[in-house]
Write a structure and sequence with these properties.
Layout: E1 3-15, E2 19-23, E3 33-37, E4 40-42, E5 45-47, E6 57-64, E7 68-69, E8 80-90, E9 99-106, E10 132-137, E11 151-156, E12 163-166, E13 180-187, E14 192-198, E15 209-212, E16 223-233, E17 238-241
Parallel strand pairs: 1-17
Antiparallel strand pairs: 1-2, 1-8, 3-6, 4-5, 5-17, 6-16, 7-16, 8-13, 9-10, 9-16, 10-11, 11-12, 13-14, 14-15
């Protein structure tokens, strides 16, 4: 059995230069979170997939219930934001296929994408437009041109990542059972997204992925929801703390 233990630590979002929205998933009450798909409460934890006896794939999503403003009509650039979260993937069954998790920004708080390689971020019919996902994927999916089963990818309205990084290159193994830390920063004024990954809780000096992108051009709505998706392939995943 493979268990995804996900601990979301902190999200901070800054709109323009005068307003901000900040929240800490570790201190939020259940009423401040929205559970979608296979996500459910059990044994004082939020489980994001169902424990079934038959082989299956499933997807769960947890969102902060209040939308966050990413665009303002008086500004010609989108909001800047910063996030930090930690997670671990442990108790890997060597016969299991794999799975993944994703930090998501979405305009839709009512639906979840398909399981499998879609990671619950998007669906096979091409829906879920306007989504931004940073995936931490343990499955090499040829359909989506994954480079291996240990990578980080930036997904913009497509599960074929527009930017991808091989975690083997920095000595990080998603399925090691060790705590993995990630920082995601977007600079609205210069339209640049940086993703940092490390075992250390000290932010690396250089980003693991850095890409120039204007998230306001056909990707991001004025108001969006923040959260995390987890997908399981014949396994069980749960969030130990939010």
């Amino acid at each position: 059995m493979e268990i995804y233990s996900l601990l979301i630590i902190f999200f901070s979002f800054i709109v323009g230069v005068v307003a901000s929205t900040e929240f800490d998933f570790g201190t939020l009450t259940l009423s401040s979170l929205k559970l979608l798909g296979d996500a459910h409460l059990g044994n004082n934890t939020i489980k994001l997939t169902r424990d079934l006896d038959v082989p299956n794939s499933g997807a769960g999503k947890v969102l902060y219930t209040k939308p966050v403003r990413f665009r303002r009509p008086d500004l010609d650039f989108p909001a800047s934001f910063s996030s930090f979260f930690s997670f671990s993937i442990s108790n890997l069954n060597p016969s299991s296929i794999g799975g993944g998790l994703a930090f998501v920004i979405t305009p839709d708080d009512e639906s979840i994408g398909d399981p499998g390689g879609y990671l619950g971020v998007m669906d096979a019919k091409g829906g879920q437009n306007g989504n931004i996902g940073v995936e931490f994927d343990t499955l090499m999916d040829v359909e989506f041109k994954d480079i291996n089963g240990n990578h980080v990818g930036l997904d913009l309205n497509s599960m074929i990542s527009s930017e991808v990084g091989d975690l083997d290159s920095i000595g990080v193994e998603l399925k090691s059972g060790d705590l993995v830390n990630s920082w995601i920063d977007y600079f609205g004024s210069i339209k640049k997204l940086d993703v940092y990954v490390s075992y250390s809780n000290v932010k690396p000096k250089e980003p693991f992925i850095s890409v120039s992108i204007d998230i306001s051009e056909g990707i991001l709505s004025s108001f969006c929801y923040i959260g995390a998706n987890l997908v399981v392939f014949k396994e069980v995943q749960e969030c130990e703390e939010f």
